[in-house]
Amino acid sequence: MHSTHVMPWRIEDIDLSRIDRRKAASNEQLILLLCAASFVESGTDLYASNLSTFFRDDPEVSAWLNDVWEPEEMQHGLALKTYIRHVWPGFDWDTAFRNFFAEYSLTCSVEEFEKTRSLEMVARCVVEMGTATLYRAVSECSDEPVLRQIASNIRTDEVRHYKHFLSFFRKYNEIDGHGRFAISGTLMRRLMAMRNEDSAIALRHVFAIRYPARAHDTAYQRSLAEGVNTLVRRNLSADQCVKMLLKPLALPAPVLRCIQGPLAKMTQHVFFR
Predict the structure, then answer these.
(1) Could you give the angle at the alpha carbon of 143 between the alpha carbons of 137 and 243, nearest 5°?
(2) Contact (Cβ atoms closer than 8 angstroms) between residue 76 and residue 13
(3) CA–CA gap between residue 184 and residue 122 (Å, rounded)
(4) If 0-12 CB within 10 Å is exposed, 13-18 middle and 19+ buried, where does residue 24 land?
(5) Axis crossing angle, helix 218-235 with helix 117-141, rounded to the nearest 10
(6) Rounded to the nearest 10 degrees, how much is the dihedral formed by the CA atoms of 160, 165, 171, 174?
């Protein structure tokens, strides 16, 4: 990689010897969640490559994707993987990730992108909103200090990435001219996809390696996944989630004030149930 980008933080600067293993391992659902997140983050290079191809004729966007976004996202995956290895030393992360990636990579293609560049940037905003919300929830539900530090670092990165994608959306929508109807359609479609696809695939492959004797027990795996989702729902900030979600719509302030509360409740129940 030819980038001269200076990372805002490095995994090497985090003192992993401070991990309270007993405290960390006592929350099995949280480590399952982190493991699934580490797989999705570690698969970013494939998505970044496709995204860079989609925006190849815009040097500003493709340079930012290749030199900033991709290395930072890959570091998120590495940080979580390193943490998991400290907490679950016997867990075969590499095999689980390889199995996950074989399935996940089939869902990542340029054909899956939105029809226009501005709407694809809206889709990216949804994903960054989701990850920022997730890592805030991780910080809220863990009292293990090293994990809270890692989650806080990742969340700060994700919020910054979101702001970049939002500014790129605004730049492209000056050209594409999509109205709120088209934008809200993309927002809802991506929310549903995020909920149904990536994390479900990742969790399934975590379970297969963590609980090999129950690898084909779909009812058991479903109950585990429900436990993980409940953990997130209890700790997420739906208000922050909705604020980020609505930004691309550029709604007038009085409308925002009216719908933010009801939408936060709906988000909590529908997308994180």
Answers:
(1) 20
(2) no
(3) 9
(4) buried
(5) 90
(6) -130
Within the chain, strands assigned E span: none
What are the counts of helices (DSSP H) followed by strands (DSSP E) for the chain? Answer: 13, 0
Give the tens place of pLDDT for each residue, 22-76.
Answer: 989 899 999 999 999 999 999 999 989 999 999 999 999 999 999 999 999 999 9
**Contact of 243 with 260, CB cutoff 8 Å:** yes
84 and 38 Cβ atoms separated by less than 8 Å = yes
66 neighbors 5 (Cβ within 8 angstroms): no
Note the CATH number of domain 24-237: 1.10.620.20
Note the pLDDT tens digit of each residue in 154-176.
Answer: 999 999 999 999 999 999 999 99
Length of the chain: 273
Contact (CB, 8 A) for 174 and 187: no
As a 3-state breakdown, the chain gives helix, strand, coil percent values, each rounded to 5, of 80, 0, 20
How confident is the model over 121-135, as pLDDT tens digits?
Answer: 999 999 999 899 999
- d(CA 50, CA 234) in angstroms, rounded, equals 34
Q: Is 59 left (phi over 0), alpha (psi -120 to 50) or beta?
A: alpha
Cβ neighbors of 46 (< 8 A, separation 6 or more) are 101, 105, 108
Q: Which amino acid is at 216?
A: H
Cα 228 from Cα 35, distance rounded (Å): 11
Neighbours of 5 (CB within 10 A): 15
Domain boundaries, the chain: 24-237
